[in-house]
Amino acid sequence: MSFFSSIKQIGSKYKKIIIVAFVVWGLSAFGLGGLISWFFLSKASLDKFPEITKNDRILIIAPHIDDEVISSGGLIQQARSVGSRVKVVYMTNGDNNLFSIIGEDKSLKISPPEFVSLGEERMQEGIQATKVLGLTKDDLIFLGYPDYGLSSMLDKFYSIPYLSRGTKFDYNPYHGTYKKGQLYTGANIVSDLEEIITNFNPNIVIVSHPRDKNPDHWATFRFSKKTLADKNFQGKVFAYLVHYKMYPPDKNPNEFLYPPKKLFSQKGWVSFNLTPDQENKKLEAINQNKSQLEFSRIRDLLRTFVKKNEIFEEID
Q1: pLDDT tens for residues 36-81?
Q2: Contact criterion met (CB below 8 Å) for 233 and 315
Q3: For the chain: N or C, fewer Cβ within 10 A?
Q4: Which residues, in sequence order, are CB contacts of 240 under 8 Å at separation 6+?
């Protein structure tokens, strides 16, 4: 038997061991995300996000205050640097985040006014965070709908008011919002979005992903999709992902972000690459959401999205 035949036999016999060893080496050298990224780069690729120009009018629809920064913090900076108009619509004030309130007073006896106070606090955090990115208060629209209530308002509470689990209001109680006193119904969400789209006239809409595991996120997409269809919107729609199993895959900064395996295809996903300065500004903006940084799990998730790029799936 020749030398090369012997090597071939050994390689075949220990094939599984070699593969396992390679995987272990990849995990230790590059981390899970890096190994997954390497695999997908050999199977599929991310197209570039279309060039942003001064003529673009970009509407970002965020289920909660902070989603606009972690999903599009770099893109917002780039848009403002070239003179694009950007407007952010917050569907809710994120006022039903139990962890945020517990983090402040360490008490499990939480009253409705405390949830309202959290919503008011998060509005100010949104203003400060987007200011870091180059936006002003006039660029922001707070709708004040109930946190963790949007999915229920798609059907059962489309025409009748929904009672917020946290604040115990069935209407928007917040000053400084789009329509203070607006009843919590799905029909009113659609009406508000229609007015905003008519007045702002965007050519690019960025919204939460339909496959996001958070009910407010996929519900926001469905409300937006209905509204855009009713308005016969002719621009581009891009969806961003926040909540999904094992996502983001790489917990380290300064890595490239890729979609989860189940959602990654040969086309559809696009990447917006950030400069180091944009990465730093994005982290600074995330850190303005102080109410969300009390618990390490939430803090780590937010900061995990500071990557070399931001990704979006173009929606037909």
Answers
A1: 444 444 345 789 999 999 999 999 999 999 999 999 999 999 999 9
A2: no
A3: C
A4: 67, 71, 72, 206, 207, 208, 209, 310, 311, 312
Instruction: Please report which confidence band the pLDDT of residue 97 belongs to, taking 50, 70 and 90 as the band edges.
Output: confident
* Of 31, 49, 39, the residue nearest 270 (C-alpha): 49
Question: What is the signed CA dihedral for 299, 94, 216, 145, rounded to 10 degrees?
Answer: -170
Alpha-helical runs (H) found in the chain: 3-13, 15-41, 67-81, 98-105, 112-133, 186-200, 215-230, 276-286, 296-304
Q: Which of 65, 217, 68 is nearest to 144 (CA)?
A: 65
State mean pLDDT over 280-305.
91
Buried b (16+ CB within 10 A) or exposed e, 81-104: eeebbbbbbbbbbbbbbeebbebe
Is it the case that residue 201 has pLDDT exceeding 90?
A: yes
Structure token digits, residue 256:
């490239």
Report all structural domains of the chain as residue ranges with CATH numbers, in order of start.
Answer: 3-41 (no CATH), 47-315 (3.40.50.10320)
pTM: 0.85
Tokens in use for 242?
């926040």
For residue 50, what are the CA distances in angstroms to 89, 170, 270, 311, 314?
22, 41, 8, 12, 11
Q: Which two tokens stand for residue 105?
A: 């007073």
Cβ count near 225 (within 10 Å): 17
Element spanning 310, H or E: strand 309-315
80-84, 104-108, 290-294: range with highest mean pLDDT: 80-84
Q: Rounded to the nearest 5°, which phi and psi values hold at 212?
A: -60, 140
